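Look over this entry.
=====
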Amino acid sequence: MSRKKGNIAEDMAVDFLHDNGFKILERNYYSRFGEIDIIAFKDDTIHFIEVKSGKGEPIFNITPSKLSKIIKTSEFYLVKTKSDKNFCYDAVIVEENRVELIENISFF
């Protein structure tokens, strides 16, 4: 997928999250461990969100290796921000004009 299509999917994900009561804290947060597409906050919980788009089942493009990088990057973020909030790992799936939030992907 091209970076342009990825940006469009991320923009759609951000709009969807805003519409569902999330506050966006960061986009494309980088550390030496990896990258997190969106960091958002809702109901006293920090959500580390991976955005996937495309045809078929984009959720399966979140590999164990990718999830490990997200977890390490989130741990870095939590230490850096000195956060003691609850947190979870989610995915936003964008397929054509459908956007879906899948919560707690670390339990797959």
Remarks:
- The first helix runs from residue 3 to 19.
- The chain is about 30% helix and 40% strand.
- Residues 78 and 84 are 8 Å apart (CA to CA).
- The chain has one domain: 3-107.
